[in-house]
């Protein structure tokens, strides 16, 4: 069986994801689609709308064959480490290809861009440092530096101001640096861009746009045009069971408590908290009673909303700089859900896997990375602040991979 890998968050699984999934299968002529998916906290530094088990069920119901969890240490990391962890797992799972959506749509431009930045690495890093000294954010410094080093190139290059192009570039970079045998493919992103509003006249909207509508309306009928019926059913079940969706606004009372119970010095020890942000975070938590007003106070030109949210994610989950530096690559493969075909594929490669396969957490002890996944899952359910969510604490020890 030929397998193709995709890297996903499915927050939630929508029609655009379904298009990407189907096109990935067609473009690579694959028998199996394997999705490496973030757990309960995401790369933009926020809690998932619904938990990893629910999102994994959405994926399998829509046609994914195997869903593997991307460990917290990579799922909540900056783009380069997020990509590194995901591509490493897909390569370990014997995928022949990985396929990502991009605004660019041309694979050639990604390879040209990687080789350009590799050959001009010193010039690029110097430019980044100079732009950072001007007080602008790291992503903007990267983009401005990219313009500097690419201005004389006549080759087709990727526009790295686009969010999906940025992630795509890092997937390509990770594959090169890991010397992975997996080949890359890309599909042009259709209709909705990452930050676009959801338009009622369309059937494809970004996950960001869908969540914005959902949080505004609190009515699933407002987003029904954008999701497969299987996703809508899972969201409906979640809402009736948990009574709330995951968001920082929902988690704010607990996050605020955690911030204020620490000293500013302690806050500085958490991953990604840097350059005095511990002071701004603590001072704003004293004054602001909503997450939105808290973020509006501390956001600056230097740090993007996403970067600050990742700081807060690590504070909430007690994840320190020391822990971050101790993790280089994923140390296990953890399936969350699979189809019958996915189960057969996994069985066929099981003996050749370079990493241990973790189906039962209780049977795999003394692994700090896995222990972190379990802890952050528990803290996610605590943040939902509903009666049923409290019963889900410890569920990583009770739930085995879903076979659908």
Automatic annotation (TrEMBL):
One of its GO terms (cellular component) is cytoplasm. The keyword Lyase does not apply. GO terms for biological process: tRNA modification. It is an enzyme of class 6 (ligase). Its EC number is 6.3.4.-. Pfam families: HIGH_NTase1 (PF05636). GO terms for molecular function: ATP binding; ligase activity, forming carbon-nitrogen bonds; transferase activity; tRNA binding. Keywords: ATP-binding, Cytoplasm, Ligase, Nucleotide-binding, RNA-binding, Transferase, tRNA processing, tRNA-binding. It catalyses: cytidine(34) in elongator tRNA(Met) + acetate + ATP = N(4)-acetylcytidine(34) in elongator tRNA(Met) + AMP + diphosphate. ATP binds at residues 7-20, 101, 164, 189. It comes from the Bacteria. The keyword Transport does not apply. It is found in: Cytoplasm. Catalyzes the formation of N(4)-acetylcytidine (ac(4)C) at the wobble position of elongator tRNA(Met), using acetate and ATP as substrates. First activates an acetate ion to form acetyladenylate (Ac-AMP) and then transfers the acetyl group to tRNA to form ac(4)C34. Belongs to the TmcAL family. This is tRNA(Met) cytidine acetate ligase. It comes from Psychrobacillus glaciei. The lineage of its organism: Bacteria, Bacillati, Bacillota, Bacilli, Bacillales.
């Amino acid at each position: 069986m030929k397998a193709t890998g995709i890297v996903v968050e499915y927050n939630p699984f929508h029609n655009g994801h379904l298009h990407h999934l189907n096109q990935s299968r067609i473009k690579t002529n694959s028998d199996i689609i394997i999705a490496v998916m973030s757990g309960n906290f995401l790369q933009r530094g926020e809690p998932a709308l619904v938990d990893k088990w629910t999102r994994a069920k959405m994926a399998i119901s829509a046609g994914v064959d195997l869903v593997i969890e991307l460990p917290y240490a990579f799922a909540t990391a900056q783009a380069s480490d997020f990509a590194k962890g995901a591509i490493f797992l897909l390569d370990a799972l014997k995928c022949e290809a990985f396929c990502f959506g991009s605004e660019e749509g041309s694979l050639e431009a990604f390879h040209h861009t990687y080789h350009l930045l590799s050959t001009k690495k010193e010039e690029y890093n110097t430019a980044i440092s100079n732009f950072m000294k001007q007080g602008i954010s790291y992503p903007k410094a990267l983009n401005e530096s990219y313009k500097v080093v690419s201005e004389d190139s006549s080759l087709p290059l990727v526009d790295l101001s686009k969010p999906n192009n940025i992630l795509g570039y890092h997937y390509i970079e990770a594959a090169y640096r890991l010397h992975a045998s997996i080949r890359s493919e890309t599909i042009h992103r259709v209709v909705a861009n990452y930050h676009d509003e959801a338009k009622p006249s369309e059937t494809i909207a970004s996950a960001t746009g869908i969540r914005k509508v959902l949080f505004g309306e609190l009515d699933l009928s407002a987003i029904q045009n954008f999701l497969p019926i299987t996703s809508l059913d899972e969201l409906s079940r979640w809402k009736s069971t948990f009574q709330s969706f995951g968001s920082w606004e929902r988690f704010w009372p607990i996050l605020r408590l955690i911030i204020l119970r620490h000293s500013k010095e302690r806050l500085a020890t958490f991953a990604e908290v840097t350059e005095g942000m511990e002071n701004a975070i603590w001072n704003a938590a004293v004054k602001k009673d909503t997450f939105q007003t808290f973020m509006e106070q501390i956001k600056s030109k230097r740090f993007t909303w996403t970067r600050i949210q990742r700081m807060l994610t690590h504070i909430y989950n007690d994840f320190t700089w020391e822990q971050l530096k101790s993790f280089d690559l994923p140390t296990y493969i953890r399936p969350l859900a699979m189809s019958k075909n996915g189960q057969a594929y996994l069985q066929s490669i099981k003996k050749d896997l370079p990493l241990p396969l973790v189906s039962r957490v209780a049977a795999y002890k003394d692994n700090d990375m896995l222990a972190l996944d379990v802890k952050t899952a528990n803290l996610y359910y605590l943040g939902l602040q509903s009666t049923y969510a409290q019963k889900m604490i410890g569920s990583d020890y009770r739930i085995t991979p879903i076979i659908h």
